[in-house]
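Continuing the series of single-chain predictions for the mutant panel. This is the parent chain; the variants come on the following pages.
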Amino acid sequence: GIELATTIVRSRGQIKANSTALQFTIYADEASHIKTAMHAAAHGYMGIVANSRGKRTSTNDIVPWEHDGEDASQLINWITEQSWSNGSVVMYGGSYNGFTQWATAKHMPKGLKAMAPYVAANLITGLPYENNIALTGNFEWPLFVTNNKTVDDSVYNDWQRTDNILNELYTSGRPIVDIDKIANKPSPWLQKWLAHSKDDAYYQRMVPHQEEYQRINIPVLSITGYFEGGQISALNYLHEHHKYNHNANHALLIGPYNHASAQGKPRSHHSNYELDPVALEKDTEEVVFQWFDHVLYSKPQPKLVQDKVNYQVMGTNEWRFANSLQALNQQKLSFYIQNTKTNDEQNYLLAHKPSSQPNDFIEQTIDMADRTEQRNRAPWPVIQDSIHKQGGIQIETPIFKQDMELTGAITGFFDIAINKKDVDIGFNYYEITAEGKVFHLNNYRSRASYADDMGNRRLLIPNEKRRVPIVNARFTSKLIKKGSKIALVLNVNKNVEAQVNLGTGKAVNHEHVSEAGKELKLKWYLSSQINLPLKLNQPDRNSNGLR
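Parent structure:
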């Protein structure tokens, strides 16, 4: 009883049964689908783009996320029964279309032979949640995809109005569940997701969960970027796949790309950072079809996909390759906060040895009801003349005496204590060059009560020390030149880009600023351990930018 609208394109010269390249999407746009399917046909595949139930000519109700996996699996079963199909189906596509691939892999239809999700989305590890923190970005998306049978472009027409709504939510201190009331546009789907603030059965029904990854033994190529807002989702799928399936055939391609450029051809710059020439060689769909040809027909693999992890080191003009993310992150230097300051007595030092006074701490006092300030926002543009600390605590490494390669994600833990029951912590992460320029590497935010387990909240005991692991930090790769240093600005996550956790211990999605109570006192203990993924840089000896 489920109807799915599909666009199917084959080459005029096709005579024999063929492999099918499938995208499954909620973004219904027939003209765009025809171009996408034609592109697949031009690469020698049957090209198919199918829409989620309820879209285009489907008479069913529009249901984002919840049924895409089972629907796409049934579609693949149908495809393999057709005379023009040779029984092999590959899936590809980005963002929501990356999610639908993982949703399909949960059911592992027999015909699915490989998939290439790029910037793959996930509700609980991307939008609207990041590390259990509800984000305000793209809050209008549910209306964009459910208002009509295609997409409602009018939703995003007035960016100033959207900014005003977000500013009103933040400055008024109203709970995030009121955001659609402020917008005067009821959003039932958004409210449904806000009713599920942890990794529970609702989300686990959509995509593979734990041991279900063991069934996914097809080749997978994930693609994402250092500047991609949803990178956490893409890498979480990869981590879980390798964690629960030791035979996982799963490769990663990652470089200095954002949400758009990771899915297509990059521009020459991101913000005011000029990309290395070799980073511009990535054309996502061309790489993907070369990779499909390699997987299905044993043709040469793409030159950018040589190993399990394929990454571009910013500032080197090189692509480099490693056997696993875990191996990359094992190459690290551990740092500990010191209660001594830099020569200008503005910032705190990081050292390789733990402090002799591990129970000492650096304290912040923050008025959570004060909405005239914002903390832990990611700065823009990427390269700046100085760091704006936003009331945070800056900690920094010694100056490096040799060129270093920074590749991977920060790991470790923070030992903290607060006078409340919960807090959203975070940091901004920078390179400070010998010339004094500042390069923003990425931003981190995490809810302390969920850091041990995204599915189970464990509130903090006021004024008692708690070890909070650094989880789902973003991956980056950059040459850190001799004379540079790394800096982190530790802070509470309190800004217009996300809900504000007042620390009451109640459901944060319903907290109102009137419940803020006394000022938050946050102690960062010197026993905290921060592992930076650093190793000596080894220059490329080849001339083609690959190593």
